[in-house]
């Protein structure tokens, strides 16, 4: 009885604290226009959009001592690219006869031993100088974990009748994975029969733009809730927005005030290397082509499928909702609309489903100005989120590689000037996805 009372008062206190947080959040206004203005006007110093100043490192650059390199290797086919990924190369750029990407020193040695022709090699600390930006000084418009929560709490508090905010699980370091749900008659994790759409950002830590797109889409949807088209989506659909699946990694990437080019989560592996690639950790052809089993690799798939709490949270989320029909996983960079399969070169076996994927991808490519293709046309990558959600759950799932188009246009760290256009273009694509979520097959009905 004593334990029950203690638990009761703890939960009551927690509920009270959460309610107070929501009340405080309601006092702040995060409009879509205001957020974009804070991005485009560097003179705006609203505390709501800036990170606190962080101590400056004594080193000139945070990657000093990093054992990774940016290399260019001869490779002409998707099969060759897949082998390179399997050996631990995290491919960033694809050309006709070569690829460039990030590789640990041990991977570089391994490639040389296997006879691969390495055309160029540059320490990542040196290469990264081309993209050096202080976060927050130059990129304060981007939202860190706490700022993201502030925005989500504010828009939820202002739209209590249709919006709810809850956690689908915790990260390795214990951070909540916050989810905004928009539904007129179901809150939190309550079941719904309405067709569901899911938008997830930041599987990968350094891809901060992949947080901004779903986060600002959430703001835009609720701000435009009374427009006839948007009202119809809100009344008829079950919409979930998870802006930051990998909060630990995203926070670590900016923890010293300079970017660390960190991709993985913050799992402490037994050998001392940090992190697992969450987008290689799903249980669909896990550990096969395009995934590395070396803990030092940026594409390390983990000791087993769903070994990571972040990927497991996504798994439980999808498995507990049979109503989900469509899904976008946001990444950067390359300006691509990708669809299954990613783990094998063969196309989706179901002809009807394959046509749906192709039609939807083509339309979203038109809206964004990106290119559409099957994921494995780049290279095969197993353990991918969208392969699993389609292959295991039957959800029409897409990976969108956001702007810019290349590393030399900014890569993972393109600055703030790119945010406004990227957000607006991808809101159009996301709204198209919502428009067909009730029945994706209608896109091929003539």
Number of strands: 12
What series of H and E elements makes up the topology?
A: HHEHEEHEHHEEEHHEHHEEHEHEH
What is the terminal separation in angstroms? 65 Å
Total discrete domains: 2
Give me the CATH superfamily of the largest domain.
Zn peptidases
CATH class of the largest domain: Alpha Beta
Order of strands across the widest beta sheet? 5-6-8-7-9-12-10-11
Q: What is the count of DSSP helices, taking H or I runs of 4+ residues?
A: 13
Low-confidence stretches: 1-18, 42-61, 132-136
SS class = alpha/beta
Q: In the CATH hierarchy, what is the architecture of the largest domain at level 2?
A: 3-Layer(aba) Sandwich
Largest sheet: 8 strands, mixed
Proportion of beta-strand residues: 15-25%
Radius of gyration of CA atoms, rounded to a whole number: 21 Å
The helix content is 25-40%
Look at the structure and give the mean pLDDT. 87
CATH topology of the largest domain: Aminopeptidase
Morphology call: globular
């Amino acid at each position: 009885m004593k334990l029950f009372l203690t638990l009761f008062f703890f939960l009551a206190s927690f509920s009270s604290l959460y309610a107070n947080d929501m009340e405080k959040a309601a006092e702040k206004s995060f409009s879509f226009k205001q957020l974009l203005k804070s991005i485009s006007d560097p003179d705006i110093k609203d505390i709501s959009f800036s990170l606190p100043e962080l101590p400056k490192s004594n080193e000139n650059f945070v990657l000093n001592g990093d054992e990774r390199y940016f290399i260019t290797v001869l490779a002409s086919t998707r099969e060759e690219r897949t082998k390179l990924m399997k050996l631990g190369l995290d491919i960033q750029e694809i050309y006709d006869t070569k690829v460039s990407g990030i590789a640990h020193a041990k991977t570089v040695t391994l490639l040389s031993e296997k006879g691969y022709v390495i055309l160029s090699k540059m320490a990542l600390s040196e290469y990264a100088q081309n993209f050096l930006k202080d976060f927050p000084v130059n990129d304060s418009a981007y939202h860190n974990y706490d700022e993201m929560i502030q925005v989500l709490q504010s828009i939820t508090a202002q739209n209590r009748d249709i919006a709810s905010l809850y956690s689908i699980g915790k990260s390795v370091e214990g951070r909540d994975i916050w989810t905004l749900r928009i539904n007129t008659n179901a809150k939190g994790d309550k079941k719904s029969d309405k067709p569901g759409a899911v938008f997830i950002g930041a599987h990968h830590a350094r891809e901060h733009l992949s947080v901004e797109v779903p986060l600002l889409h959430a703001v835009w949807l609720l701000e435009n809730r009374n427009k006839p088209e948007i009202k119809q989506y809100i009344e008829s659909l079950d919409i979930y927005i998870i802006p930051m699946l990998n909060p630990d990694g995203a926070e670590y990437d900016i923890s010293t005030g300079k970017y660390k080019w960190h991709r993985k989560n913050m799992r402490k592996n037994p050998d001392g290397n940090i992190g697992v690639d969450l987008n290689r950790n799903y249980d669909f052809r896990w550990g096969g082509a395009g995934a590395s089993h070396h803990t030092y690799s940026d594409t390390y798939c983990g000791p087993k499928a769903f070994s990571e709490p972040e990927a497991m949270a996504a798994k439980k989320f999808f498995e507990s909702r049979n109503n989900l029909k469509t899904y976008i996983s946001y990444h950067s960079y390359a300006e691509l609309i990708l669809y299954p399969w990613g783990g094998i070169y063969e196309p989706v076996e179901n002809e009807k489903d394959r046509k749906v994927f192709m039609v939807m991808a083509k339309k979203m490519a038109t809206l964004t100005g990106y290119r559409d293709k099957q994921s494995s046309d780049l290279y095969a990558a197993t353990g991918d989120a969208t392969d699993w959600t389609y292959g295991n759950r039957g959800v029409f799932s897409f990976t969108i590689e956001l702007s810019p188009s290349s590393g030399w246009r900014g890569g993972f760290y393109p600055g703030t000037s790119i945010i406004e256009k990227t957000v607006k273009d991808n809101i159009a694509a996301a709204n198209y996805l919502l428009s067909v979520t009730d029945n994706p097959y209608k896109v091929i009905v003539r």
